Amino acid sequence: MGRSGVLGLSAAFVILFTVMVSATAQRRPEQANARDLIADLDASDPAARVKAACGLRDLGDAAADAIVPLTRLLADGSPVDARVCVRRWWRGGSDAVTTPGEQAASVLASVGSSALPALLGALKQDAWIARRNAAWALGAIDDRRAVEPLIQSLRDREPAVREQAAWALGAIDDSAAVQPLVSSLKDDDSRVRKQSAWALGAIDDSRAVDPLVGALADQQADVREQAAWALGTLGDSRALTGLIGALKDTSPDVRRQAAWALGAIGR
After folding, report:
1. Which DSSP category does 187 fall into?
2. Do 165 and 114 share a structural domain?
3. DSSP H or E run through 40
4. CA angle 206, 140, 203 (to 5 degrees)
5. The whole model's pTM is what?
6. What is the CATH number for 168?
7. Which tens digits make up the pLDDT trace of 61-81?
8. Does residue 86 lie within any of the structural domains?
9. What is the DSSP letter of 188?
10. What does each C-alpha distance from 20 to 4, 61, 106 come to in angstroms?
């Protein structure tokens, strides 16, 4: 903002008062709307809670006042038709479902780094749904301060939380996550292994090449397919032998992805 010159006391007061009144008049509808939406986050109807969260996201920075109630809402897994709060350009199917917790995570991600402390705390909530939603939001915010807590979440007792933590680490793209993600290629849950392979491809660190080649022998085809994609993204010739072998995989999707990866490496 620019600075004006020195004014007489009465003139300065009149101008200041006029500016304050004008600003208040401009902000009042938005602030009032935010208060109403925050109150609706506690509505008995889950659809109303979803609509309130979507409304807060549309308010942008004004949603920062809702960080605490939104964090509480992260644990809400009540299924709601996703069309409750989408705009006119929605082309999703009629069976698309969302939850208040997912929408709360979306709002917190839109708020940005000011929501980081609350989201980091949510990684330790008792409800696994809250931990999963918090992990997603942290990946969407893309703040490196979340890397170590997310690495800890790779050891969460719930596979869905581990899977989301792996995605978030890939989204943040910090090399500190490479070795923990390599370890997660051996997770008991195939969804976690698949997401870890994707994350390693997204981070693009050569330390992941040999572990990803090993993942081409995973018992689950979708994990093998994701490992082939990641190796193509890494573009390291050390993967050639493994990918050539994957051209004989029993799954056509794996063979197709291996062929793409070989082409990507050969460019």
Report:
1. -
2. no
3. helix 9-40
4. 5
5. 0.84
6. 1.25.10.10
7. 778 899 999 999 999 999 999
8. yes
9. S
10. 16, 20, 32
